[in-house]
């Protein structure tokens, strides 16, 4: 399929040889023959001409929608129903299509990762991706949908989504394509991450034999176009968002082709073959060395981390102890007592869930001083009225409102800044976190002493979809391997930290997923507590799998860099003058 099988005999064979030259032979690394370049030239997939054409197409599409901006809203209006919203809000078909698009992305990226890792262990077969092809596929997804579309354009071009416009029941104004600094500030409409990810599947067209390209291109294009059209029907994107995303991804596919295929691809494959032989020759000694190092490092890891997790679904091996073995029962613990607990609840359009969640929080913390801060992240539902009713019922809840949606990370930070307590507990506003665990988390943070900076909830009995659980587990494994934060689940919204430490941590979009690593950077220990995961009662999640994965991958390496740049810490800081005055 991927250029390894010989063309069939007969007229088709003679035609293929007239394009590709003599029959291909497999090299030591399973790489492609140089004659593949001829076929790619014949298909128009090399040289600068395709990039020039795509650049002109991008400019043409942009100018067209700048000249006729009403086309965007007219197309979106076809899928809008007055007083009911866009069809995607309650359409099972669109939900299935969106899930299929996410799965298509996961399958493609997973195939690339397996091919790269497998090439280090075994020689690639004729029906599998070569290392160069796998790296090409992964690079297209990372640079096109991941970097250009999701990380740069969606965070830089301030364009509101169709469902957020005033004419469709929202509160924001329409802005045309390529207008910087519009009404939206984060996770904006321009351009479409899911449409870009769907279009990236066309990378496989370049990798198959020339005689298979037309049929595969038509099939994959139909699938990708269906996924992209579903985003328009759901009110998530405009037509121009989807078209611009497609052109950008197609340009990425063409631009990266000579970097990973052809002569450079053969060098990559040969490099993997050499590395594979080297690893296989050293495997017995490496395994013995790894066993020795793991035994020797047990004490060091137990000193650095503390906490309790269950053995079920643990991504980091054996569970950690709540009280490390190096501490004896006779040693006094430097426990502490928090005067007030501030519970921060980031929420966007969660009025129905808040009506149940906030009273649950108040009941859980009835025995100690507390406040509840609902950070309304630009909601356009009945959140203000819901919080007002809760206050009228005598619940100690405060309503902190963002003028426009800025994302969950910014909402958490707003709550931490406004918190009056000396301990902050975060909990998601969708009601999936059980507030009954908050007192136990605060108690564990108090008993663990001043050296403990975080108690992180670890979800058990996950109620999310299989796709979301799978993507979460893969992200957690990758994050743990790179950051060494010894936490199997950083996506749980239940976390407890001292307020002064929370405010010292470096802020960026996505920081709430990396709190364990950031706390360890401050030379504080972390503790874990298994918590129950519940079903969402009302509404649906605002983010797709690929949007979250693309940003998370970029954030991961950013946090890795932050940790490396913060290795030198001052240890205990003492105000000598103040100590002498007392």
Automatic annotation (TrEMBL):
It holds the Pfam family PAP2. InterPro entries: Glyco_trans_2-like (IPR001173), Glycosyltransferase_2 (IPR050256), Nucleotide-diphossugar_trans (IPR029044), PAP2/HPO (IPR000326), PAP2/HPO_sf (IPR036938). Keywords: Cell membrane, Glycosyltransferase, Lipopolysaccharide biosynthesis, Membrane, Transferase, Transmembrane, Transmembrane helix. Residues 1-36 are annotated as: Disordered. Residues 136-257 form the Phosphatidic acid phosphatase type 2/haloperoxidase domain. GO terms for biological process: lipopolysaccharide biosynthetic process. One of its GO terms (molecular function) is undecaprenyl-phosphate 4-deoxy-4-formamido-L-arabinose transferase activity. GO terms for cellular component: plasma membrane. It is an enzyme of class 2 (transferase). Its EC number is 2.4.-.-. This is Glycosyltransferase. It comes from Jiella avicenniae.
């Amino acid at each position: 399929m991927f250029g390894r099988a010989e063309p069939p005999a007969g007229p088709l064979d003679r035609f293929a040889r007239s394009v590709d030259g003599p029959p291909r032979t497999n090299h030591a690394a399973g790489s492609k023959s140089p004659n593949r370049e001829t076929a790619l030239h014949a298909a128009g997939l090399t040289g600068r001409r395709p990039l020039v054409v795509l650049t002109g197409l991008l400019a043409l599409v942009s100018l067209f929608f700048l000249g006729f901006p009403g086309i965007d809203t007219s197309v979106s209006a076809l899928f809008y129903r007055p007083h009911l919203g866009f069809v995607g809000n309650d359409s099972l078909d669109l939900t299935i299509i969106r899930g299929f698009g996410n799965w298509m992305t996961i399958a493609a990226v997973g195939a690339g990762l397996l091919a790269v890792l497998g090439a280090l262990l075994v020689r690639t077969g004729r029906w599998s991706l070569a290392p160069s092809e796998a790296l090409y596929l992964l690079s297209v997804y990372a640079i096109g949908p991941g970097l250009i579309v999701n990380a740069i354009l969606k965070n830089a071009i301030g364009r509101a989504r169709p469902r957020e416009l005033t004419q469709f029941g929202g509160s924001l104004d329409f802005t045309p394509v390529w207008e910087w600094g519009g009404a939206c500030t984060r996770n904006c409409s321009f351009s479409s991450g899911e449409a870009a990810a769907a279009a990236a599947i066309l990378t496989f067209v370049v990798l198959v034999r020339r005689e298979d390209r037309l049929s595969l291109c038509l099939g994959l294009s139909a699938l990708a176009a269906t996924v992209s059209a579903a985003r328009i029907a759901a009110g998530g994107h405009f037509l121009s968002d989807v078209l611009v995303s497609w052109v950008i991804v197609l340009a990425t596919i063409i631009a990266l082709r000579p970097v990973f295929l052809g002569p450079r691809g053969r060098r990559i494959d040969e490099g993997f073959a050499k590395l594979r032989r080297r690893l296989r020759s050293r495997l017995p000694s490496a395994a013995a060395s790894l066993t020795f190092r793991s035994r020797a490092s047990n004490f060091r890891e137990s000193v650095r981390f503390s906490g309790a997790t269950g053995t079920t679904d643990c991504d980091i091996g054996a569970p950690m102890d709540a009280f490390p073995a190096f501490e004896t029962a006779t040693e006094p613990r430097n426990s502490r007592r928090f005067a007030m607990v501030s519970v921060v609840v980031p929420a966007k359009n969660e009025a129905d869930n808040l009506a149940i969640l906030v009273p649950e929080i108040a009941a859980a913390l009835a025995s100690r001083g507390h406040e509840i801060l609902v950070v309304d992240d630009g909601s356009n539902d009945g959140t203000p009225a819901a919080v007002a009713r809760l206050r009228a019922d005598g619940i100690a809840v405060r309503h902190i409102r963002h003028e426009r949606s800025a994302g969950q990370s910014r909402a958490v930070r707003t709550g931490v800044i406004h918190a009056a307590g000396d301990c902050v507990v975060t909990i998601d506003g969708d009601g999936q976190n059980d507030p009954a665990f908050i007192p136990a988390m605060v108690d564990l943070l108090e008993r663990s002493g001043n050296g403990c900076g975080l108690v992180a909830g670890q979800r058990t009995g996950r109620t999310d979809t299989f796709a979301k659980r799978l993507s979460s587990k893969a992200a957690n494994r990758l994050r743990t391997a790179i950051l060494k934060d010894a936490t199997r689940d950083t996506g749980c919204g239940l976390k407890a930290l001292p307020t002064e430490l929370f405010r010292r941590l470096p802020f960026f979009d996505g920081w709430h997923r990396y709190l364990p690593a950031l706390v360890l950077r401050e030379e504080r220990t972390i503790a874990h507590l298994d918590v129950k995961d519940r079903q969402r009662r009302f509404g649906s999640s605002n983010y797709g799998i690929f949007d979250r994965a693309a940003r998370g991958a970029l954030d991961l390496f950013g946090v890795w860099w932050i940790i490396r740049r913060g290795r030198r810490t001052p240890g205990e800081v003492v105000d000598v003058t103040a100590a002498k005055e007392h």
